[in-house]
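Hello,

I think I submitted the zinc ion job twice by accident. Can you confirm which output corresponds to this input? Input:
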Amino acid sequence: MKEKQKLEANEMNSGERKHRERRHRGNGKTAIVIVVIAVLAIVGIAFAASKSGAGKQSETEKNQRVAKEEQKNETTPAQESGISQESTTSGEDTQSGETSENETEVLQETTPAVEETTSTYPVAGQEPFVFEDTGETKLAYLTFDDGPSDNTDQILSILDQYGVKATFFMIGIGKDDEASLQRYKAIAEKGHGIALHSFTHDYGSIYASIENFAADVQQIHDWVLQTTGVDTRIYRFPGGSSNTVANIDIQQGIDYLTSIGYRYFDWNVSSGDATGKPITAEEITQNVLSGSADKTRAVILMHDTNAKGETVRALPAIIEGLQSMGFQIVPITDTTKPVQHVKASYMQ
Ligand SMILES: [Zn+2]
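Support: Only one job matched these inputs. Its output is below.
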């Protein structure tokens, strides 16, 4: 505005200038040229400024939109996999190295400006765990620990009879005879869940140190891969993650499993077939059905060992009972949301 007034003032003075022009011809002409150039320059600058201002504004809006969309996209996987931004509020002071790495990763994912970085969750270069759980159907997971055994064949034939799939958390020690090798194979070929439960199942050696634990995990992984052809990453701690026999801090074991891309499962329904006291098939059935009654996801602990004949006897009634309660019986897969007594960072 000031500029314009000045210009107008200049123009109004042009009459006066004409007088001067007569007196100082050369100087007057130069002055007019300068004024005209100045007017053109100022008008030009004003126009350019208003245009670039509008451009800048729409550019900013566009950037904001893109940033918003990126944020939306990048936060979705973390939310799906159950990673909470305010994780680790359990108060348990444990090996937090892994956890803080996870937190960093989540923070990076919600910051749109940061370019994709090398993932450290759960293993460098691997995708975060994603658990599919729509919650629409009641699901029951029959899980058999400690096998294979002389009872495996019968368990498999009952499962076949009902057309349902279970999950076998298997061990390795002393099971290199032909019959056992056939059982590992049969479990896999029939499409049941293949899972690991340590090689030796010897608490004293497995839990003596994290190095021992890691070595045992690798040993059972390789053994099951060799016998079934299945490269599984599903694990159950001998005694469960809440066991009181481990010499190591169980969180160390949990962090190790997470670091190598394994998920581990405990259970939320116990059949009671391994309490050490004699138990009947009827009692086992009763334990399973009453334990599952208030669940929409029932992970049922049973055992596949030579001594657990009553479990085999209970199996038909367990399957029928669960089905009549509205459960669909399914195997544990890579996308099954774990039940854990001591929770891994990706479950918090
Ligand atoms: Zn066991």
